Amino acid sequence: MMIPKNDNIDVLIIGAGPAGLAAAIRAKEEGVPNVTIIERDKILGGLLHQCIHNGFGLWYFGEDMTGPEYAKKFINRIKEMGINVLLDSMVLNITPDKKVTFCNENGVQTINPKAIILAMGCRERTRESIMVSGNRPAGVFTAGTAQRFVNVEGYIPGKEVVILGSGDIGMIMARRLTLEGLNVKAVVEVLPYIGGLIRNEVQCLHDFNIDILLKHTVSWIHGRERVEGVTISEVDDRMMPIAGTEKRVDCDTLILSVGLIPENELSTMAGVKLDPITGGPIVNEFRMTNANGIFAGGNVVQVHDLVDNVSWESEIAGFNAARYAKGEELDEGVIKLIPGENIRYVVPQMISGKEDVTLYMRVQEPKETVRVNVGDILKKTERVVKPSSMLTYDISYEKHLSKVPKGIKEIVINCEEKGK
Amino acid sequence: MVNNREADIVIIGGGIAGTAIARELSKYNLKTILVEKNYALANGQTKTATASIYAGLVMIGSLIAKSILLKPGEPLYNPDGFKMRWCEEGFREWPKVFDELDIKYIRLPVLVFARNEEELKGLDYYEKVAQEMGEEYVNSYRIVNKDEIFEIEPNLTKNAIKGLYDDRHLVDAFPPEIAIALAENAKDNDVEVILDAEVKNIIKENAHHIVETKQGNIKTNFIINCAGGYADRIAQMGGGSDFKFNYKTSTLMIYDKNKRNLINSMVRTPCQPGFLEFVKPTAHGNLIGTSGRYGTVEGAEDTEIILEDGIQGANGVSNIIPGITRKDVINLWRGVRAFGTKEPDDYLVEFSPFNEKIINIVLRAPGIAGALGLSRHVVEMLTEAGLKLEKKSNFNPKRRAIPDFSELSDEERNELIKKDPRYGHVICRCETVTEGEIVEAIRRGAISEQGIKFRTRAGMGRCKRGFCGPRVIEILARELNIPITEVVKRSYNSVLIPYKAKELLLEKEEALI
Ligand SMILES: Cc1cc2nc3c(=O)[nH]c(=O)nc-3n(C[C@H](O)[C@H](O)[C@H](O)COP(=O)(O)OP(=O)(O)OC[C@H]3O[C@@H](n4cnc5c(N)ncnc54)[C@H](O)[C@@H]3O)c2cc1C
Ligand SMILES: Cc1cc2nc3c(=O)[nH]c(=O)nc-3n(C[C@H](O)[C@H](O)[C@H](O)COP(=O)(O)OP(=O)(O)OC[C@H]3O[C@@H](n4cnc5c(N)ncnc54)[C@H](O)[C@@H]3O)c2cc1C
């Protein structure tokens, strides 16, 4: 294992998921000599290792790959390019002046790179964070943890399963567990629509005849020591269980796919400001945070549904972190992008207005036939918008931003129903 | 199986009562065995407690809250009862024991404040009770006005108008940590602790008893019934029970460590009978809070969470500290307090009227606070009952905690890692717990996920085992030399990962042949 010298790291990337890998490669391509990735796991690739299903890389490579295959392409490049890798090493702290403390079996070390890229990914929301009534037995798992057990460790959590939440991981696990011989009794979703991608709804639920109950929730967990069943109830408009609609379903396992939270404890230590909606750092178009020289990309910034976007977004961070490390000035974000009608969030939250930029956005509610207005500079008609499908718009300097009057401080983005 | 052992004393139950008594008895030349039905100690009421050892203002609040259990005419305050005496003693003594046993604790001030007329009346009632209780209680606090309140707690709701402030009468430690430390020290002094040893029956045989447990029979002279909310059942096995329980619940919430800095003290609104509302820091840097009426349930095992209670509780806490929201809750549970029906407002500690060799113990909240006094009293009772007690010359009062990697300086960490590289391998990301700590916990007797959690805090953070769960299971299996499919959460029937991949497919295939 190479121990990096304390004083000569140009760009340090924390996390070796798809975000970290893409950022590292892009930074190295910019010609900075010492690019180092630090990762707490024993291997590179992050979440992709446990995603043995296909559907990765359709956009980035134009090829349908599994998670590990997608990761492999990047890992090969990392090796070819001579990027330093520190595995089995947990970053414990980052200070606002970019001192990074990590530990591994050789001890605790502090390094001081010129630029840092945060690529720590996200964690799953838990049973505790959504407060389900009932007992607290063994047999309640988050979908990602269950996925790790099945796909990486080779164990299965039970025989009969109910899945709460129709996020992508939940649906993918419904199929995966069915293939393993488990009986998936239902996927229960509190919203009136599916939380994940349509292709997952079709390929993971419909194709396997798995019941999906919309506007329902698990209102009680039964079983003192191990899950023995759950009660499923319809919910009202406040998403609270409706009395009288309870149905008991026997099962020994409850899997939760109820959302992901960007993992930003380190970012906060470094003084990085977070966007309360995305849960990730507030970034400008260079993916730089408010802390000078600290950049971020991938799920740590916003929860992506497609790995391709993770890779692209992180390349922006990699490219600009390298520029920063070389001493280039990066324009400050002076124009704020404000989520308006039916827009939940926009990333980046700030732009300089002087360069091309891709906007990533999510809507609040599903709507049909809408017009999305990015201030006055871009208007687009969308046939369907859903919170689960990210909107990505390319804004060019020449075509759009150059037309923005000087001195403008903010651009509001609205998603309006057509004909209004 | 621990076949046919013999003991002078068997302690049934590894909560705070059982472990405190085990440690006290370990000072004497005796054969003492503690049996606990779960795979982890402190898994009953003790793990659900708020964790406070208190006198002063909090004691007044506790008496008022619990006064719903009093019958008309019964006094709020009985200075001569076990509870008051031992809690007051315990408040002074526990910190010394915490130091001896290397248990982490904090001292906290207490602010009881009012937001409206009704709560102002609540404060008046506190003052009235303090006067009844005497000078010590009257002097335990001072009145603070609005300005002083915000100096003490800048993040408190702006609606606060008046408060009572007690800056010294609260000590806080993590209850399972206390019980486990007591048990470890007892073990070091030759007490035997047996987990997964549910007592199924007690048989009288001549002058002694046979305690039948899941792990085999134990022949013993005395039995100390510390089974908490199940003590009536044990009493019954021993010949009869002259008490039952009232079970009162509260829903408690743990908040993310990133909210720790919002408060400096325990902040609470004045309790009314049967109502509790507060939020305070814990010894390990979270916040713990509750808000709601006591619930009533049928049994000690009725610990099911109720969503509405959680929401109401979280809202109540947000109304105290607006900067804390429901989103910051990382854990919640419903604790069941078992109140014995025999004593009006006191611990029950006596020889069973049906069996002169069984001491029945029923603590009531605050039970942790009084457990030291209890343990000494039990020794006196045994002496009076004719047991020859002889002090050990080599009793070792000290116990060292497992090194807490997250709290060490980098130099200390490096030293530890040099000795054992497994201390450089972080397993729990939220609480920064290393493999070294987990292996040490297993060496000290942890055999379940819960046992690891109570000893090291692995899995107690915001991701709730999402990250460390699989890793901890793997280490448990490896160190205990058992298959992963046998690792349990906290009891023999709480297996976490029951099958190997493909196992169910093979079963299905076999069914086709
Ligand atoms: C179940 C599931 C199914 C998916 N399916 C698809 C799909 O079909 N198609 C698709 O395109 N996309 C899919 N995705 C999305 C995509 O895989 C994720 O968005 C992507 O993995 C996120 O990449 P990341 O690098 O931001 O985070 P991660 O992959 O989570 O990587 C973060 C890395 O940071 C490391 N790290 C974190 N903190 C520290 C620290 N303190 N010190 C050291 N290292 C640290 C972690 O160990 C991890 O390796 C799926 C995701 C999931 C979870
Ligand atoms: C919400 C709440 C808040 C509280 N707050 C405080 C506080 O702030 N301060 C304070 O001092 N006190 C507090 N208490 C009270 C305190 O928790 C209890 O008084 C104390 O923990 C009781 O301890 P115990 O050892 O008697 O019982 P328990 O902790 O219940 O222990 C009994 C043990 O016996 C075992 N057992 C049962 N049956 C058998 C059997 N057949 N065989 C073998 N083992 C068996 C159980 O598994 C258990 O481990 C609180 C209680 C609650 C519920």
Structure write-up:
The complex is a heterodimer of chains A (420) and B (513). Chain A has 420 residues and is an alpha/beta fold. Chain A has 3 domains: 11-123 and 261-330, FAD/NAD(P)-binding domain; 126-258, FAD/NAD(P)-binding domain (3-Layer(bba) Sandwich); 336-417, no CATH class. Helices cover 20% and strands 32% of the residues of chain A. Chain A contains 8 helices and 29 strands. In chain A, strands 5-2-1-9-21 form a 5-stranded parallel beta sheet, with helices on one face. In chain A, strands 11-19-13-14-15 form a 5-stranded parallel beta sheet. A 5-stranded mixed beta sheet of chain A has the order 24-22-29-26-27, with no helix packed on it. In chain B, a hairpin with a 5-residue loop joins strand 13 (275-281) and strand 14. Chain B is an alpha+beta fold and 513 residues long. Among the domains of chain B are: 101-171 and 247-334, D-Amino Acid Oxidase, Chain A, domain 2, CATH 3.30.9; 405-486, Arc Repressor Mutant, subunit A. The chains are: A alpha/beta (420), B alpha+beta (513). The interface between A and B is large, with 54 and 59 residues. Strand 12 of chain A pairs antiparallel with strand 21 of chain B. Bound molecules: flavin-adenine dinucleotide (2 copies).
The total number of structural domains of chain A is 3
Structural class of chain B: alpha+beta
Give the oligomer, counting copies of the same chain as homo and different chains as hetero.
heterodimer
Class by alpha and beta content of chain A:
alpha/beta
**N-C termini distance of chain B:** 39 Å
Please name the two chains that share the biggest interface, counting residues whose Cβ lies under 8 Å from a Cβ on the partner chain: A-B, 54 and 59 residues
CATH fold title of the largest domain in chain A: FAD/NAD(P)-binding domain
Number of helices of chain A: 8
Beta-strand residue percentage of chain B:
25-35%
Give the strand line-up of the largest sheet of chain A: 5-2-1-9-21
Q: Please bin the fraction of helical residues of chain B.
A: 25-40%
Number of beta-strand segments of chain A = 29
